[in-house]
Amino acid sequence: MVRNIIAEITQTLPLRLLNTYTGALCDRDAQISCFQDSVQYDELQSSTCDSPECEQSIRKTISEYFGYITLSHRWGPGEPLLRNIQGSSIYDLDGGEGFAKLQSFCALTLRHGYRWAWSDTCCIDKDSSSELQEAIGSMFAWYRNSALTIVHLADVSGTTSFADSIWFKRGWTLQELLASPRVLFYTQDWSLYMNCTSPNHKLDAAILAELREATGISELQLKNFSPGVLDVRSKLQWASTRHTTRAEDVAYSLFGIFQVSLPIIYGEKTPGALGRLLAEVVSQSGDVSVLDW
Fold first, then answer.
1. What is the DSSP letter of 291?
2. Residue 149 pairs with which residues in a beta bridge?
3. Where is the Heterokaryon incompatibility domain (predicted)?
4. Which of 54, 93, 114, 174 could, after both became Cys, cross-link 49 (CB 3.0–4.6 A)?
5. How confident is the model at residue 159, as a pLDDT?
6. How does pLDDT run across 154-196, given as a tens digit for each residue?
7. Strand 148-152 to 68-73 pairing
8. 3 state DSSP class of 231
9. Sheet of 16-19, strand order
10. Rounded to an integer, what distance in angstroms lies between the CA atom of residue 107 and that of residue 115?
């Protein structure tokens, strides 16, 4: 039973996670190996289970062990990629601002009580087209399943409103904001935005009002967004002022929001990628009027 539950839960995890205790990058086999070396695993192996309540308790223990925190941020110069940290501890590396940001994120994740952390910079092998396809198709679910998303606003100081942050102008961060059920905003020096100690800034009235103003998204959608092909025009409007580094990502960053699965074809440029996306949305919704948008 324990092995089956481990297999089930780890299949929903990102392909790689950072172990905040050691700073090591771990694939799923390494994640499972860490759990098998843990006190929790020993306790489960030595217990007996003969009731649904017991099975539920086992599932809860395993789920809590594999809980992870995701990072949402604007990429800067010198971000560490998978090849830069593979086989090393992130805490031992010195490579400039990007490495310092990743170290601060992992340390903050640990202070929140979680062993596992995920960053899009180093936890995806971007040299593998098949892995990149899987990651883009799964990213909405990874953020939705995370215990917490930490948003680092590198251009916001302690006294500045976050409404003008470049984070609100990037394409991928829209998906990260909408998918994440629990979010905390941190400023340039890793202080809580507005010194707000709420466990979820999406539920804080003052921050929620600022979010609504900065994004044009209603409070209901910010707090409880459902992906899919309903209200397509609103979703396209939210994305219309955002930009991506690679042209095709204008469309690819919306796959999770519309809950569509399409091939990733870098090189097709924006018209081709957006055209395929809108064709799929029309096919699923039956609403051709979205093309007028």
1. G
2. 70, 183
3. 68-158
4. 54
5. 79
6. 999 987 899 999 999 999 999 999 999 999 999 999 999 999 9
7. parallel
8. coil
9. 25-27, 16-19, 116-118, 68-73, 148-152, 183-186
10. 10
Task: Compute and round to an integer the Cα radius of gyration of the chain.
Answer: 20
CA nearest neighbour of 153 among 99, 118, 193, 180: 193
> DSSP letters along 96-163, please?
SHHHHHHHHHHHHHHHTT-SEEE-TTTSS-TT-HHHHHHHHHHHHHHHHHSSEEEEE-TT--TTS-GG
Contact yes or no for 135/169 (Cβ under 8 A): no
Partners of 68 in the β-ladder: 116
Contact residues for 75 (Cβ-Cβ < 8 A; gap 6+): 121, 245
- Kindly state the tokens that stand for 5: 């539950």
Token duo for residue 273: 């990628």
* All structural domains of the chain with their residue ranges: 1-48+69-224, 226-292
Output the six-digit token pair for 215: 């994004």
Specify whether the CB–CB gap between 26 and 159 falls below 8 A.
no
Q: Which residue has the tokens 């990058």?
A: 25
The length of the chain, given as a count of residues:
293
Tokens of 18: 């950072």
CB 165 within 8 A of CB 177: no
pLDDT, one tens digit per residue, over 98-147 is 999 999 999 999 999 999 999 999 999 999 999 999 999 999 999 999 99
- Provide the 3-class DSSP secondary structure of residue 80: coil
Write down the H helix ranges in the chain: 2-10, 28-36, 39-46, 52-65, 82-85, 97-111, 129-145, 171-179, 205-215, 219-223, 232-239, 249-252, 255-258, 269-285
